[in-house]
């Protein structure tokens, strides 16, 4: 754990608490605890609640856990033991289920207004903090992007006709684990299922000629998303036309992701992009992505959403036209300049020139 980064985030949390009039804050959800501590705060990948609880007061920060998790969290996740005075660890016996509530009550006694992160007003404040990337975190985001794209592309490069979607999904998960990533979204579609479903959970269906692979990968709470397409033999002219169109939409929305614009503005632009491409109805068939961070999407681009784009944020757009999709994750740095995180340079690409900048979007890998 980076103590300086923790101190910076705790200061931001306490500033929000002071502004909102909260005396103490109880964090229970993975996305918030992982953001604050850079710890893997899960046991069950499917659970939103963390395996521990964090309490922030004006002077102290406590981590509460049953004795099952306390030693591992201290040794491997938050680190430091007695040397780490930034987070004070409390534990209770796992077989006393009310131990957690007793500890929360004891540590927040005397505070008039104790809030928790299940309350909408608290989530609104925490979302603003969570989606701001500190300078000290940028390298971790870049590393995650490279590793996730490498994991997905290594599977695409080794695909074999006759493999089932489940086998392919298993390979994606394995490649992530080998890179110390958690595969939290694994979607695989073979052949007609690419055209049928936007969120194709893997099935026993065997691959004949065309596959779409979608990955959401997580490391210490941070999440990136990417999609890759693979075709055995030459794709049809219609598929190529649709793919170029969706790559151009993707490049246009990436290029337009600039500080000051709202996510409502971005949705309005996407409507124009789909219309210009000749596929106006496709925007209604799937969400288009948006602001990301410690959820697969922190805020989608939707009509009239007033949330504004800002420097030091992460975005994952995913425009789709029936049969094709384009998706990567990008970081806006401190100046608002974009960097595609999930890019390795080892995959076929479509080059789109916009306003003097060349945007490299993933192509269809022909095997």
What does this structure look like?
With 367 residues, the chain is of the alpha+beta class. Helices cover 36% and strands 26% of the residues. The protein has helices spanning 3-20, 30-37, 67-78, 99-107, 120-130, 138-158, 165-178, 192-196, 237-255, 263-277; strands at residues 24-29, 49-56, 61-66, 88-92, 114-116, 182-190, 210-219, 222-231, 289-292, 299-300, 313-317, 320-321, 324-325, 328-332, 338-340, 349-354, 357-362, 364-366. The chain has a 5-stranded mixed β-sheet with strand order 4-3-2-1-5, sandwiched between helices. β14 and β15 (338-340) form a beta hairpin. α6 packs antiparallel against α7. The chain is globular, with a radius of gyration of 22 Å. The model has no long low-confidence stretch (mean pLDDT 96).
- The best one-word shape is globular
Question: How far apart are the first and last residues' alpha carbons, in Å?
Answer: 43 Å
Query: Approximately what portion of the residues adopt beta-strand conformation?
Result: 25-35%
Radius of gyration: 22 Å
SSE class: alpha+beta
Question: What string gives the helices and strands in order?
Answer: HEHEEHEHEHHHEHEEHHEEEEEEEEEE
User: What is the tally of helical segments?
Assistant: 10
The major sheet is characterized as:
5 strands, mixed
Strand order of the largest sheet: 4-3-2-1-5
Level of helix content?
Answer: 25-40%
Low-confidence stretches: none
Q: How many β-strands, per DSSP?
A: 18
Question: What's the average pLDDT?
Answer: 96
